[in-house]
């Protein structure tokens, strides 16, 4: 390897890669047989790059032949050759077409290079004379290369340098000075947050970073119809014909799907999956299906179907079509018979316990005759076997070592859509890829744990000779201080730790909606996490920060008092209540005002009054007046009234117009003629970051519950501007935080959930 120009370190690194070193050895031996034992460094580099970048080793000899005959001389030609063989997986290759695509035999003369550079410089002459050597010379190189694709890059650069020198002369001191950087215009925060809720397929002003990320991923993903360019994709003699049919049906459109199981409520991790599947389709002009994987009838309930669709639409996405795995049960059954007929599946009688794990004993029924499996499978369908007595298994070994995954099992449970028609139901391993094939999905996007099923995905489609989509994996999104597993949430509900799936302390999507998180905030959070292959485990305060950004722009202001203290203004200037105009958004008064009554009796927070003002305390105290926000008045203590226990129950104050009073140290919020309400204040449900980790919480997640995760304020007061608010309406209660109207609200008693505080608690960061 050092003999072909590799450094000793590179040669040793190559030897550590068995597959690469074997290919490179073959390439070098073939080249030496044609060129002799001494290979120059340029040839060696081409051979190394061929071995390292070639996806299908069967083309190695073909490409090395062109290098040895000096017909592929540059890395540019080699890149074109590698792309050609990747794009044409079927034998035999069209040699003439290959040579055209790789520039074989193309000779570029110095005169052609000179003419091309001359034309490019003439085009940019005015800008060159104005900017001189600060002009982007790479632009000249690029345009000249576009005209002469197979020309040597160094020769073009030398010609560009020569002609620029001839035009401009030698560099001056001014030319040597660095060009000043131009500041890029930045979007205002409000513009960044705009989210358009559009039908899938329309591209609008959604979170810019998300769409840009997803468009960026398109560079790594295959184009529709070019599935065979994906590493690991299996090409059969029928692949190209099936892809041609696929393109005729889809018109080359990107198609994705979001395939939840309807046996639970979606959580924050699903939000990333929704954003990735629907967002990738939207970003690339495609469509996304919402497909329910309804193959487990005993766990599925109608409420889950409804809630899943509601959450998808709440996040701003409209499915291209809503489908069910059960829509295709007849076709899946027909294909199961075909799989048996082709010798790829058999009926097995091993018990579930016997085939669990990665090293189960081989099935003694693996080689039973096809006719026997067909009869037994028909008996399974007719209900002649009990649950667990027979399964249909596929003959393959998966990446994780699992052998012969189950395709069908017996379940005597009526299905919510098909009733009693079936007593056998397909598994995920069998159903998923075939439903993708039926719907002509182009990109089957799933989380990383399904990577072990990729080979079975390709195998099953190819075993049945049907269109085979491409499975791509991405990293899951997890949050600290929570649990999202359906089983554990059910335990929390059963033990009374939370009320239901939508308890605002959970991180299900219905819970986040109830707590008041805007869908835009969740989408923005997913965008910030990014479309990564690695699993992402995030702190909840990052999601809360996204909520603050959106709510600050969209939640109108109101005033509320959680711990009311009565204040009587003894010299109130009017016999009846005054009306005070309060801006909905103080930073932008053009967005309107609302009116609140200002009466002789107002209520302030207990914590906004002290009988003795400590150093640094700026709010109301004897001898220390405060302003009442938005009223134009300053109040000063006249009398402090206490009950028999010595607790302060009322203040009597005097008021003075703020334009004549001395400017107070602080302005406080207040309410007058208020509405009674209940306010629910939430903290983290669990005390530890990883409540499911035995090393962190030996007693199990139920032992880690935070006793202070919910505090209910029963007798809070809120100003009357919110009286017409509906469930899920959001407000910023001045100085208190962001709050959302809870569905428990009734006539005469509103209920508010605190979504987040106004500022992040440093202790939680």
TrEMBL record:
<feature type="domain" description="Glutamyl/glutaminyl-tRNA synthetase class Ib catalytic">
    <location>
        <begin position="253"/>
        <end position="552"/>
    </location>
</feature>
<keyword id="KW-0597">Phosphoprotein</keyword>
<comment type="similarity">
    <text>Belongs to the class-I aminoacyl-tRNA synthetase family.</text>
</comment>
<dbReference type="GO" id="GO:0004819">
    <property type="term" value="F:glutamine-tRNA ligase activity"/>
</dbReference>
<dbReference type="InterPro" id="IPR020058">
    <property type="entry name" value="Glu/Gln-tRNA-synth_Ib_cat-dom"/>
</dbReference>
<keyword id="KW-0436">Ligase</keyword>
<dbReference type="InterPro" id="IPR042558">
    <property type="entry name" value="Gln-tRNA-synth_Ib_RNA-bd_N_1"/>
</dbReference>
<dbReference type="InterPro" id="IPR014729">
    <property type="entry name" value="Rossmann-like_a/b/a_fold"/>
</dbReference>
<protein>
    <recommendedName>
        <fullName>Glutamine--tRNA ligase</fullName>
        <ecNumber>6.1.1.18</ecNumber>
    </recommendedName>
</protein>
<dbReference type="GO" id="GO:0005524">
    <property type="term" value="F:ATP binding"/>
</dbReference>
<keyword id="KW-0547">Nucleotide-binding</keyword>
<keyword id="KW-0067">ATP-binding</keyword>
<dbReference type="InterPro" id="IPR050132">
    <property type="entry name" value="Gln/Glu-tRNA_Ligase"/>
</dbReference>
<dbReference type="InterPro" id="IPR042559">
    <property type="entry name" value="Gln-tRNA-synth_Ib_RNA-bd_N_2"/>
</dbReference>
<feature type="domain" description="tRNA synthetases class I (E and Q) anti-codon binding">
    <location>
        <begin position="667"/>
        <end position="742"/>
    </location>
</feature>
<comment type="subunit">
    <text>Monomer. Part of a multisubunit complex that groups tRNA ligases for Arg (RARS1), Asp (DARS1), Gln (QARS1), Ile (IARS1), Leu (LARS1), Lys (KARS1), Met (MARS1) the bifunctional ligase for Glu and Pro (EPRS1) and the auxiliary subunits AIMP1/p43, AIMP2/p38 and EEF1E1/p18. Interacts with RARS1. Part of a complex composed of RARS1, QARS1 and AIMP1.</text>
</comment>
<dbReference type="GO" id="GO:0005829">
    <property type="term" value="C:cytosol"/>
</dbReference>
<dbReference type="InterPro" id="IPR020059">
    <property type="entry name" value="Glu/Gln-tRNA-synth_Ib_codon-bd"/>
</dbReference>
<dbReference type="Pfam" id="PF00749">
    <property type="entry name" value="tRNA-synt_1c"/>
</dbReference>
<dbReference type="InterPro" id="IPR004514">
    <property type="entry name" value="Gln-tRNA-synth"/>
</dbReference>
<dbReference type="GO" id="GO:0006425">
    <property type="term" value="P:glutaminyl-tRNA aminoacylation"/>
</dbReference>
<comment type="function">
    <text>Glutamine--tRNA ligase. Plays a critical role in brain development.</text>
</comment>
<dbReference type="InterPro" id="IPR007638">
    <property type="entry name" value="Gln-tRNA-synth_Ib_RNA-bd_2"/>
</dbReference>
<keyword id="KW-0648">Protein biosynthesis</keyword>
<dbReference type="InterPro" id="IPR049437">
    <property type="entry name" value="tRNA-synt_1c_C2"/>
</dbReference>
<dbReference type="GO" id="GO:0017101">
    <property type="term" value="C:aminoacyl-tRNA synthetase multienzyme complex"/>
</dbReference>
<keyword id="KW-0030">Aminoacyl-tRNA synthetase</keyword>
<dbReference type="Pfam" id="PF04558">
    <property type="entry name" value="tRNA_synt_1c_R1"/>
</dbReference>
<dbReference type="Pfam" id="PF04557">
    <property type="entry name" value="tRNA_synt_1c_R2"/>
</dbReference>
<dbReference type="InterPro" id="IPR007639">
    <property type="entry name" value="Gln-tRNA-synth_Ib_RNA-bd_N"/>
</dbReference>
<dbReference type="InterPro" id="IPR000924">
    <property type="entry name" value="Glu/Gln-tRNA-synth"/>
</dbReference>
<dbReference type="InterPro" id="IPR020056">
    <property type="entry name" value="Rbsml_bL25/Gln-tRNA_synth_N"/>
</dbReference>
<dbReference type="Pfam" id="PF20974">
    <property type="entry name" value="tRNA-synt_1c_C2"/>
</dbReference>
<dbReference type="InterPro" id="IPR011035">
    <property type="entry name" value="Ribosomal_bL25/Gln-tRNA_synth"/>
</dbReference>
<feature type="domain" description="Glutaminyl-tRNA synthetase class Ib non-specific RNA-binding">
    <location>
        <begin position="156"/>
        <end position="244"/>
    </location>
</feature>
<feature type="domain" description="Glutamyl/glutaminyl-tRNA synthetase class Ib anti-codon binding">
    <location>
        <begin position="555"/>
        <end position="655"/>
    </location>
</feature>
<dbReference type="InterPro" id="IPR001412">
    <property type="entry name" value="aa-tRNA-synth_I_CS"/>
</dbReference>
<keyword id="KW-0007">Acetylation</keyword>
<keyword id="KW-0963">Cytoplasm</keyword>
<dbReference type="Pfam" id="PF03950">
    <property type="entry name" value="tRNA-synt_1c_C"/>
</dbReference>
<feature type="domain" description="Glutaminyl-tRNA synthetase class Ib non-specific RNA-binding">
    <location>
        <begin position="1"/>
        <end position="153"/>
    </location>
</feature>
């Amino acid at each position: 390897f050092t003999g072909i120009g590799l450094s000793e370190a590179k040669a040793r690194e190559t030897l550590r890669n068995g597959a690469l070193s074997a290919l490179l050895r073959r390439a070098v031996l073939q080249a030496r047989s044609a060129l002799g034992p001494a290979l120059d460094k340029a040839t060696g580099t081409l051979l190394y790059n061929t071995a390292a970048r070639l996806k299908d080793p069967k083309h190695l000899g073909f490409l090395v032949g062109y290098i040895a005959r000096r017909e592929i001389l540059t890395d540019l030609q080699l890149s074109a050759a590698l792309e050609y063989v990747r794009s044409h997986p079927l034998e035999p290759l069209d040699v003439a077409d290959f040579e055209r695509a790789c520039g074989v035999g193309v000779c570029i003369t110095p005169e052609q290079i000179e003419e091309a550079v001359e034309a490019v410089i003439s085009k940019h002459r005015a800008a060159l004379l104005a900017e001189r050597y600060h002009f982007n010379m790479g632009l000249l190189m690029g345009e000249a290369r576009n005209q002469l694709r197979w020309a040597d890059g160094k020769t073009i650069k030398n010609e560009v340098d020569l002609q620029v020198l001839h035009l401009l002369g030698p560099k001056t001191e001014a030319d040597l000075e660095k060009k000043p950087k131009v500041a890029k215009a930045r979007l205002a925060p409000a513009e960044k947050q705009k989210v358009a809720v559009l039908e899938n397929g329309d591209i609008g002003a959604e979170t810019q970073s998300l769409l840009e990320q997803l468009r960026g991923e398109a560079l790594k993903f295959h184009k529709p119809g070019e599935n065979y360019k994906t590493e690991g994709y299996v090409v059969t003699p029928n692949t190209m014909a099936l892809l041609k049919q696929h393109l005729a049906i889809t018109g080359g459109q990107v198609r994705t799907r979001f395939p939840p199981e309807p046996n639970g409520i979606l959580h924050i991790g699903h939000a990333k999956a929704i954003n990735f599947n629907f967002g990738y389709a939207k970003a690339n002009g495609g469509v996304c299906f919402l497909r329910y994987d309804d193959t487990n009838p005993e766990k599925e309930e109608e409420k889950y179907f409804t809630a899943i669709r509601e959450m998808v639409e709440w996040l701003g996405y409209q499915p291209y079509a809503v489908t069910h795995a059960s829509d295709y049960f007849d076709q899946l059954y027909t294909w199961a018979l075909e799989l048996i007929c082709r010798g790829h599946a058999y009926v097995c009688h091993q018990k579930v316990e016997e085939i669990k794990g990665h090293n189960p004993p081989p099935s003694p029924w693996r080689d039973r005759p096809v006719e026997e499996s067909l009869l037994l499978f028909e008996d399974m369908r007719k209900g002649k076997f009990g649950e667990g007595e027979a399964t249909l298994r596929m003959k393959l070994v998966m990446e994780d070592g699992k052998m012969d995954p189950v395709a069908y099992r017996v379940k005597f449970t009526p299905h919510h859509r098909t009733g009693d028609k079936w007593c056998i139901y397909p598994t995920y391993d069998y159903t998923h890829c075939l439903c993708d094939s039926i719907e002509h999905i182009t990109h089957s996007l799933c989380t990383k744990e399904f990577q072990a099923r990729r080979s079975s995905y390709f195998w099953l489609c190819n075993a049945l000779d049907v269109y085979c989509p491409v499975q791509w994996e991405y990293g899951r999104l997890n949050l600290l201080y929570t649990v999202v597993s359906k089983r554990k949430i059910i335990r929390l509900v059963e033990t009374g730790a939370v009320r239901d799936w939508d308890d605002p302390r959970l991180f299900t999507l219905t819970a986040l909606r109830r707590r008041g998180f805007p869908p835009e905030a969740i989408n923005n959070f997913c965008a910030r996490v990014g479309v990564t292959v690695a699993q992402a485990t995030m702190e909840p305060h990052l999601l809360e920060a996204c909520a603050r950004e959106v709510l600050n722009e969209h939640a109108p202001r109101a005033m509320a008092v959680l711990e009311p203290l009565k204040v009587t203004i003894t010299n109130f200037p009017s016999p009846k209540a005054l009306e005070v105009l309060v801006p909905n958004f103080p930073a932008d008064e053009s967005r309107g005002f609302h009116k609140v009554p200002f009466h002789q009796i107002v209520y302030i927070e207990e914590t906004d009054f002290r009988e003795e003002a400590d150093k640094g305390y700026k709010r109301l105290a004897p001898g220390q007046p405060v302003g009442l926000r938005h009223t134009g008045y300053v109040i000063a203590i006249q009398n402090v009234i206490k009950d028999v226990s010595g607790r302060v129950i009322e203040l009597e104050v005097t008021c003075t117009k703020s334009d004549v009073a001395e400017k107070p140290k602080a302005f406080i919020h207040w309410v007058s003629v208020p509405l009674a309400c209940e306010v629910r204040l939430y903290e983290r449900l669990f005390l530890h970051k990883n409540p499911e980790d035995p090393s962190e919480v030996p007693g199990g997640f139920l032992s880690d519950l935070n006793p202070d995760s919910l505090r209910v304020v029963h007798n809070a007061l809120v100003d009357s501007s919110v009286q017409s608010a509906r469930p899920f309406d959001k407000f910023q209660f001045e100085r208190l935080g962001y709050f959302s109207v809870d569905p428990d609200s009734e006539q005469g008693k509103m209920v508010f959930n605190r979504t987040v505080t106004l500022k992040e608690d440093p202790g939680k960061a």
